[in-house]
Backbone:
Protein backbone atom coordinates (compact mmCIF):
# COMPACT_ATOMS: atom_id res chain seq x y z
CA UNK A 1 0.00 0.00 0.00
CA UNK A 2 1.16 3.52 -0.73
CA UNK A 3 -0.16 6.60 1.04
CA UNK A 4 0.27 9.31 -1.61
CA UNK A 5 -1.71 11.90 0.31
CA UNK A 6 -2.73 12.11 3.97
CA UNK A 7 -6.06 10.46 3.31
CA UNK A 8 -5.90 8.30 0.20
CA UNK A 9 -4.38 4.82 -0.07
CA UNK A 10 -3.37 3.26 -3.37
CA UNK A 11 -2.77 -0.38 -4.29
CA UNK A 12 0.25 -1.33 -6.41
CA UNK A 13 0.15 -3.99 -9.16
CA UNK A 14 2.84 -5.86 -7.20
CA UNK A 15 0.44 -6.15 -4.27
CA UNK A 16 -2.22 -7.47 -6.61
CA UNK A 17 0.25 -10.17 -7.67
CA UNK A 18 0.77 -11.06 -4.01
CA UNK A 19 -3.01 -11.22 -3.55
CA UNK A 20 -3.42 -13.58 -6.52
CA UNK A 21 -0.63 -15.79 -5.13
CA UNK A 22 -2.44 -15.86 -1.78
CA UNK A 23 -4.96 -13.32 -0.38
CA UNK A 24 -3.41 -13.64 3.07
CA UNK A 25 -0.30 -11.80 1.86
CA UNK A 26 -2.34 -8.59 1.92
CA UNK A 27 -3.45 -9.24 5.49
CA UNK A 28 0.05 -10.03 6.77
CA UNK A 29 1.76 -7.20 4.89
CA UNK A 30 -0.73 -4.39 5.33
CA UNK A 31 -2.90 -5.20 8.32
CA UNK A 32 -0.32 -6.86 10.60
CA UNK A 33 2.60 -4.93 9.00
CA UNK A 34 4.83 -8.02 8.81
CA UNK A 35 7.53 -7.63 6.15
CA UNK A 36 8.32 -10.40 3.70
CA UNK A 37 12.05 -9.59 3.83
CA UNK A 38 12.01 -10.14 0.12
CA UNK A 39 15.26 -8.22 -0.19
CA UNK A 40 16.93 -11.40 0.98
CA UNK A 41 15.79 -13.28 -2.07
CA UNK A 42 18.31 -13.27 -4.88
CA UNK A 43 15.91 -13.09 -7.83
CA UNK A 44 13.94 -10.20 -6.37
CA UNK A 45 17.12 -8.28 -5.56
CA UNK A 46 18.70 -9.00 -8.93
CA UNK A 47 15.51 -8.01 -10.71
CA UNK A 48 15.56 -4.65 -8.95
CA UNK A 49 19.22 -4.13 -9.81
CA UNK A 50 18.49 -4.92 -13.45
CA UNK A 51 15.69 -2.35 -13.55
CA UNK A 52 17.90 0.23 -11.87
CA UNK A 53 20.83 -0.38 -14.21
CA UNK A 54 18.51 -0.33 -17.25
CA UNK A 55 20.86 -2.65 -19.08
CA UNK A 56 18.14 -4.34 -21.09
CA UNK A 57 16.94 -1.43 -23.24
CA UNK A 58 17.00 -2.39 -26.92
CA UNK A 59 14.95 0.36 -28.53
CA UNK A 60 15.70 -0.35 -32.19
CA UNK A 61 15.13 -4.09 -31.87
CA UNK A 62 11.75 -3.66 -30.21
CA UNK A 63 10.77 -0.80 -32.54
CA UNK A 64 11.16 -3.15 -35.52
CA UNK A 65 9.59 -6.15 -33.81
CA UNK A 66 6.57 -4.36 -32.33
CA UNK A 67 6.21 -1.33 -34.58
CA UNK A 68 5.65 1.43 -32.03
CA UNK A 69 6.26 5.07 -32.98
CA UNK A 70 7.16 6.54 -29.59
CA UNK A 71 7.78 5.48 -26.01
CA UNK A 72 8.18 6.75 -22.47
CA UNK A 73 10.42 4.93 -20.00
CA UNK A 74 10.13 4.47 -16.25
CA UNK A 75 6.61 5.95 -16.11
CA UNK A 76 5.06 6.50 -12.67
CA UNK A 77 1.26 6.77 -12.72
CA UNK A 78 -1.41 7.17 -10.03
CA UNK A 79 -5.19 7.07 -10.22
CA UNK A 80 -7.65 7.86 -7.44
CA UNK A 81 -10.44 6.50 -9.61
CA UNK A 82 -8.72 3.12 -9.99
CA UNK A 83 -7.10 3.25 -6.52
CA UNK A 84 -3.88 2.26 -8.23
CA UNK A 85 -0.30 3.45 -8.36
CA UNK A 86 2.39 1.85 -10.49
CA UNK A 87 5.75 2.29 -12.14
CA UNK A 88 5.82 1.00 -15.73
CA UNK A 89 9.12 0.11 -17.40
CA UNK A 90 8.01 1.45 -20.78
CA UNK A 91 4.81 2.80 -22.33
CA UNK A 92 4.77 2.23 -26.10
CA UNK A 93 2.65 4.42 -28.36
CA UNK A 94 1.25 3.43 -31.76
CA UNK A 95 -0.13 5.40 -34.71
CA UNK A 96 -3.78 4.45 -34.12
CA UNK A 97 -4.11 6.20 -30.72
CA UNK A 98 -3.28 2.97 -28.93
CA UNK A 99 -0.59 2.21 -26.42
CA UNK A 100 0.90 -0.74 -24.54
CA UNK A 101 2.93 -1.37 -21.42
CA UNK A 102 6.22 -3.19 -21.83
CA UNK A 103 7.67 -4.87 -18.76
CA UNK A 104 11.10 -6.44 -18.25
CA UNK A 105 11.10 -9.64 -16.20
CA UNK A 106 14.32 -10.95 -14.66
CA UNK A 107 13.14 -14.48 -15.44
CA UNK A 108 13.42 -17.28 -17.96
CA UNK A 109 10.69 -17.90 -20.52
CA UNK A 110 8.95 -21.14 -19.46
CA UNK A 111 6.54 -21.47 -22.36
CA UNK A 112 3.55 -19.77 -20.73
CA UNK A 113 2.51 -16.41 -19.32
CA UNK A 114 1.34 -16.64 -15.73
CA UNK A 115 -1.97 -15.19 -14.56
CA UNK A 116 -0.15 -12.87 -12.17
CA UNK A 117 1.75 -11.26 -15.03
CA UNK A 118 -1.42 -10.94 -17.12
CA UNK A 119 -3.26 -9.16 -14.31
CA UNK A 120 -0.26 -6.92 -13.57
CA UNK A 121 -0.13 -5.79 -17.19
CA UNK A 122 -3.90 -5.31 -17.22
CA UNK A 123 -3.63 -2.91 -14.29
CA UNK A 124 -0.86 -1.04 -16.09
CA UNK A 125 -3.16 -0.90 -19.12
CA UNK A 126 -5.91 0.69 -17.03
CA UNK A 127 -3.50 3.31 -15.69
CA UNK A 128 -2.21 4.10 -19.18
CA UNK A 129 -5.71 4.39 -20.64
CA UNK A 130 -6.80 6.84 -17.98
CA UNK A 131 -3.68 9.00 -17.93
CA UNK A 132 -2.91 9.18 -21.67
CA UNK A 133 -6.50 8.87 -22.98
CA UNK A 134 -5.59 6.00 -25.30
CA UNK A 135 -6.81 2.44 -25.86
CA UNK A 136 -4.71 -0.43 -24.54
CA UNK A 137 -5.46 -3.85 -26.01
CA UNK A 138 -2.12 -5.58 -25.59
CA UNK A 139 0.98 -5.63 -23.43
CA UNK A 140 4.51 -6.95 -23.84
CA UNK A 141 6.83 -8.90 -21.56
CA UNK A 142 10.58 -9.28 -22.03
CA UNK A 143 12.20 -12.26 -20.31
CA UNK A 144 15.75 -11.06 -19.80
CA UNK A 145 17.18 -14.42 -18.71
CA UNK A 146 16.09 -15.97 -22.02
CA UNK A 147 18.01 -13.58 -24.27
CA UNK A 148 15.28 -10.91 -23.98
CA UNK A 149 12.55 -13.23 -25.26
CA UNK A 150 9.49 -11.12 -26.18
CA UNK A 151 5.90 -12.16 -25.49
CA UNK A 152 2.63 -10.38 -26.26
CA UNK A 153 -0.48 -10.40 -24.03
CA UNK A 154 -3.95 -9.57 -25.33
CA UNK A 155 -5.75 -7.28 -22.87
CA UNK A 156 -9.52 -7.86 -23.04
CA UNK A 157 -12.44 -5.98 -21.50
CA UNK A 158 -13.08 -8.96 -19.22
CA UNK A 159 -9.47 -8.83 -17.98
CA UNK A 160 -9.87 -5.13 -17.17
CA UNK A 161 -13.09 -5.89 -15.31
CA UNK A 162 -11.32 -8.66 -13.35
CA UNK A 163 -8.40 -6.37 -12.51
CA UNK A 164 -10.74 -3.75 -11.04
CA UNK A 165 -12.62 -6.43 -9.09
CA UNK A 166 -9.40 -7.75 -7.52
CA UNK A 167 -8.43 -4.24 -6.40
CA UNK A 168 -11.84 -3.91 -4.70
CA UNK A 169 -11.36 -7.28 -2.98
CA UNK A 170 -8.02 -6.07 -1.59
CA UNK A 171 -9.66 -2.93 -0.23
CA UNK A 172 -12.34 -5.09 1.39
CA UNK A 173 -9.61 -6.92 3.35
CA UNK A 174 -8.12 -3.62 4.45
CA UNK A 175 -11.34 -1.81 5.26
CA UNK A 176 -13.09 -4.71 6.99
CA UNK A 177 -9.85 -5.94 8.61
CA UNK A 178 -10.73 -9.60 8.09
CA UNK A 179 -8.49 -12.65 7.73
CA UNK A 180 -9.10 -13.99 4.21
CA UNK A 181 -8.99 -17.58 3.05
CA UNK A 182 -5.56 -18.76 1.95
CA UNK A 183 -4.62 -20.11 -1.45
CA UNK A 184 -6.05 -23.45 -2.50
CA UNK A 185 -2.71 -24.32 -4.13
CA UNK A 186 -0.90 -25.80 -1.14
CA UNK A 187 2.41 -26.12 -3.00
CA UNK A 188 2.65 -22.33 -2.78
CA UNK A 189 2.83 -22.63 1.00
CA UNK A 190 6.14 -24.55 0.91
CA UNK A 191 8.25 -21.50 0.09
CA UNK A 192 6.00 -18.86 1.65
CA UNK A 193 7.48 -16.20 3.90
CA UNK A 194 4.47 -16.45 6.20
CA UNK A 195 4.16 -20.25 6.40
CA UNK A 196 5.05 -20.32 10.11
CA UNK A 197 2.31 -17.80 10.91
CA UNK A 198 -0.45 -19.03 8.66
Residues:
Amino acid sequence: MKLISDTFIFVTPSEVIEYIFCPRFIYYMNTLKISQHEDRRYLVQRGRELHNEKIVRQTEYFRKKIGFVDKKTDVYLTSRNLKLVGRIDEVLFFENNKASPLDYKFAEWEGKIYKTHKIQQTLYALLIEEYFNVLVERAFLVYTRSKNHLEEITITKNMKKLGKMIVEEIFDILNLNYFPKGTTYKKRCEDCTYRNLC
Summary: The chain has one domain: 2-191. The beta strands are 2-3, 9-10, 70-79, 84-93, 99-105, 138-143, 149-154. The domain at 2-191 is CATH 3.90.320.10 (Lambda Exonuclease; Chain A).
